[in-house]
Design goal:
The protein has helices spanning about 20-35, 50-60, 85-105, 120-130, 135-145, 150, 170-180, 195-200, 200-220, and strands at about 40-45, 65-70, 160-165, 185-190. With about 220 residues, it is α/β, with parallel strands linked by helices. The protein has a 4-stranded parallel sheet with strand order 1-2-3-4, sandwiched between helices. Helix 2 (about 50-60) links the parallel strand 1 (about 40-45) and strand 2. It is globular, with a radius of gyration of 16 Å. The two termini are about 20 Å apart.
Length: about 220
Amino acid sequence: MVAWNAPGYVGSTPLPMAAPTAADYGAALHGLLDVLAIERALLVGQSLGAIMATAAALQGPDRFAGLVLASPASGYAVRPDDVLPPRVAERIAEVERFGPLGLADRRAHRLVTENAAPEARALIHRVMSEVTIEGYTQASRMLAHADLGEMVSRLAVPTLVLWGESDVITPPAGCAAIAAAAPRAASRAFPDLGHGFATEAPALFNQALTTFLAQIERQG
């Protein structure tokens, strides 16, 4: 298993352009797979990563046995020359004003439910606090211009969409709409779990991935 730090996250170098598109992130992911000599994989993207993963799957569908979109962010589908949506502008303003640690203090708790274990809360806070201002700003701009619903409608790989029914970041209705837009998608909702359900309930998440992969293998 390979966990990718997207460009601009943790120790990863930001992309060279100020406002990268989903396709730019997808190309960077293919570059990583090239370096690691990974010819075929099950690709998992969570939240913003769902947009990046979908872009990569569109660019090279033969490279991926399947695609899993967890708590997918739908995007705002604004044109590059349009004003940023208020929620995206707020994201950028917060990280610029408070820094990554301050951003985590203000936002991390919303990614899990009140029943989440302290270890899960601490992990999500730490990961959010490790973003860079430049990388987070680039990813936020990508979110503004992306249209995941349109993107998934063009997918040619088996797809699984997962979400928590208590998600306040990417609400269930939006996640269900993404699943409905993909031509070869299955879906599953997890009761009483939030946006970071993969961290809050890793056993359930891993079970869903294992079941999906087994289905793909049976279908050849």
